[in-house]
Design brief:
Elements (H helix, E strand, L loop, with lengths): L1 H27 L4 H9 L15 E6 L5 H16 L3 E6 L4 H13 L4 E4 L8 H9 L3 E5 L10 E5 L1 H15 L3 E6 L6 H20 L2 E7 L6 H14 L6 E4 L2 H13 L8 E2 L5 H9 L4 E4 L2 H16 L8 E4 L4 E7 L2 E4 L4 H5 L6 H5 L5
Parallel strand pairs: 1-2, 1-3, 3-4, 4-5, 5-12, 6-7, 6-8, 8-9
Antiparallel strand pairs: 10-13, 11-12
Length: 366
């Protein structure tokens, strides 16, 4: 009996040792299929499995790309937004109110994080703002103020000051005489601000009887052809005898000058424009245009891009200025414009790289 118990215990110990050895072998063996099975059921996340933060997307609804100035805005704004790690979708309506609304609706339906608008019609664009806000999208008004709408931010130059700079420059040269004013588009709030600035300076001289504005007309849709017709009308109405011309931008100034060339009086009558377009800079050094107003577009585009991306990320924008748009006091960032003439053209638009020296002078003597 004792022998049988002894043998039984020996067998049990042997069996136990066999199981222990087998278990250790499975744990130590990296190729064990059971271990592989556990590892396969719980894979480590790879880079593709980690959710990536989606890029901020800015929608840019532009009035037009038919002028040199707005091509610059588009390219500079796009570059600035992308340098901040965001992306931008740009659509231009080329002066068509209904198309601009439709394009803005497209950007809204694409789920942009913020909408930037250069309105063709300051009043009509209020519809876009309402649609964007209904979709939970904030709106930044770029360079031109949208009227009668709850826009979230306005970024531009001090456009009233633009008009003042024009009038200050011309009245120094012509303190008395007959003035022609060629305005911009009546639908553009900036055109009204330019004109207000001009008449801030002219009105006291008008009241004194020193200056008489013999022609004052808007230029429908900012079209240069309409400005040309306006200037022809001004010359016809005054027997070709006027003393100074202030135009709401360089494109309208250029066509006013064309009408004056045809009348044989260009170069002898001071002409003001604004935007510092290349053609205007060339006319200044040639002597047919007296001055322009330089609004450093890179500064505007970069500032607007920075603010747009920050707003899209939900950051608070602290502004000290507000502009009334007929409905609300709009938080605003207003940059300073610069008067440019033949004396300072090299230290402004050329020094900034806005235009190349050889392009401005075209072989003409400085």
């Amino acid at each position: 009996m004792d022998l049988w118990i002894s043998k039984s215990l020996t067998m049990l110990v042997a069996i136990a040792l066999l199981f222990i050895a087998s278990g250790c072998e499975k744990l130590d063996n990296p190729l064990n299929p059971e271990v592989d099975s556990v590892q396969n059921n719980n894979p480590l996340p790879d880079e593709e499995a980690i959710p990536q933060e989606e890029k901020i997307k800015i929608g840019f609804s532009m009035d037009t790309l038919e002028e040199e100035r707005w091509l610059r805005d588009r390219d500079l704004f796009k570059s600035a937004v992308e340098s901040l790690g965001a992306e931008v979708e740009i659509l231009a309506a080329n002066g068509d109110d209904a198309l601009q609304v439709l394009q803005a609706e497209t950007l809204i339906s694409q789920g942009v994080d913020l909408l930037v608008i250069v309105p063709h019609n300051a009043e009509a664009a209020a519809t876009i703002v309402k649609k964007a806000h209904l979709a939970g999208i904030k709106v930044l008004s770029y360079d031109r103020l949208i009227k009668n709408a709850d826009i979230d931010l306005y970024v531009s130059f001090d456009n009233e000051r633009v008009g003042e700079l024009q009038a200050e420059s011309i009245t120094k040269l012509v303190p008395k005489g007959k003035y022609v004013y060629i305005g911009g588009a009546d639908t553009d709030n900036n055109a009204h601000l330019f004109k207000k600035g001009v008449f801030n300076i002219l009105q006291p001289l008008i009241d004194k009887g020193d200056i008489k504005v013999v022609y004052d007309q808007w230029t429908k849709n900012w079209l240069p052809s309409n400005a040309y017709a306006n200037m022809q009308e001004a010359l016809d109405a005054n027997g070709g005898k006027v003393d100074a011309v202030i135009a709401a931008n360089d494109a309208t100034a250029g066509m006013a000058i064309q009408a004056m060339i045809e009348a044989g009086i260009a170069g002898g009558i001071p002409v003001a424009g604004q935007d510092a377009e290349l053609a205007a800079a060339q006319r200044i050094v040639e002597g047919t245009q007296t001055m322009t107003v330089y609004k450093p577009i890179p500064t505007l585009a970069e500032e607007a891009a920075k603010l747009a991306v920050a707003m899209a990320r939900g950051e608070y924008i602290d502004t000290s200025r507000k502009v009334n748009n007929g409905k609300v006091e709009v938080p605003s960032v207003l940059l300073s414009p610069i008067a440019v003439n033949k004396l300072n053209i090299e230290e402004t638009v050329i020094a900034d790289g806005f235009h190349l020296e050889e392009e401005v002078y075209q072989g003409n003597n400085r």
